[in-house]
Amino acid sequence: MTAPDSESLRLLVLVGELGSIGAAAAELRISQPSASKRLNRLERQLGLALLERTRQGCTPTPAGEMVCGWAREVLAHVDGLMNGVRALRAQQESKLRVAASMTVAEYLVPRWISLLREALPEVHLELDVTNSAAVAEAVRHGQADLGFIETPDPPEGVSVRYVARDRMVVIAPPGHPWSTLRRPLTPSELAATPVIVREHGSGTRETLHRALADVGATPVAPLLELRSTTAVRNAVVAGAGPAVLSTLAVATDLAEKRLVEVPVADLDLRRPLHAVWRSGLQLTGPAAALLATAMRAPD
């Protein structure tokens, strides 16, 4: 009898947990027929009936329950082995792959990298600048060793650590009617006005929508949808319309009066900034050093 492969064991454990071959197949991103064939092959390989199949789903047989328990232990060791290999490889290669959301990448990460290079000059760092949703996906799929996001709610399936707090503001060009208001906007007025926004998946856009939803307001369709913080800022400076951006992105413009901050009553536009990395993996080497650097930086 040959030993079963780890992916077949992982599939069996998922069927036991989810009660369905289809659900387990979807979790592993394989087709249901392929999953069924793999489970049939596993049962023939072990010479045991592992699952009871009914119209309502699948449940492990008594033998299947025991095999599932052993399989979990085996998979934990396999995952530990692979995580250890990844950590060793990262240390040996001194290579760090970082993904960061736009605002964090443009206004915070450069300083963190500079401090890291002072301590670890041999580190070769690759930075992918994208939106928060794409950062989380890159981390989940092992395409980035460490990520930084600005969404109000940390994503599932990753390890998360608070790094800093950011504040967003409503901005308008000096000639806009909002620039001369003698009172704060109401959340309803902001929600009812088309503004320039980032694309779906952006932490900036998600924070605005969450803040409005918390006070019972739903934003209308945007005036413009742009794919970078810089593009949104430039559009507002050019007079295209108002927007909501991080103070990190517009502090100089506000100080030099190229833009005007528009107060909004009873709307919380603060947001946490988080570091994320692959769930179950302990950060080591350059990734752990960069996280420590970011957390030591002023909040």
Automatic annotation (TrEMBL):
Keyword terms, alphabetized: DNA-binding, Transcription, Transcription regulation
One annotated GO molecular function? transcription cis-regulatory region binding
Q: Quote the Gene3D superfamilies the UniProt record gives.
A: Periplasmic binding protein-like II, Winged helix-like DNA-binding domain superfamily/Winged helix DNA-binding domain
Source domain of life is: Bacteria
- Locate the HTH lysR-type domain: which residues? 4-61
Q: Which InterPro entries match?
A: LysR_HTH_N, LysR_subst-bd, WH-like_DNA-bd_sf, WH_DNA-bd_sf
Q: Name one Pfam family in it.
A: LysR_substrate
Whether Signal counts among this entry's keywords is no
Question: Which CDD domains does the entry mention?
Answer: PBP2_CysL_like
- Which PROSITE patterns does the entry link to? HTH_LYSR
**Cross-referenced PANTHER family, in alphabetical order?**
HTH-TYPE TRANSCRIPTIONAL REGULATOR, HTH-TYPE TRANSCRIPTIONAL REGULATOR CYSL
Task: Tell me which family the UniProt entry assigns to this protein.
Answer: Belongs to the LysR transcriptional regulatory family.
- Name the chain's protein: LysR family transcriptional regulator
**Organism in which the protein naturally occurs:** Saccharopolyspora terrae
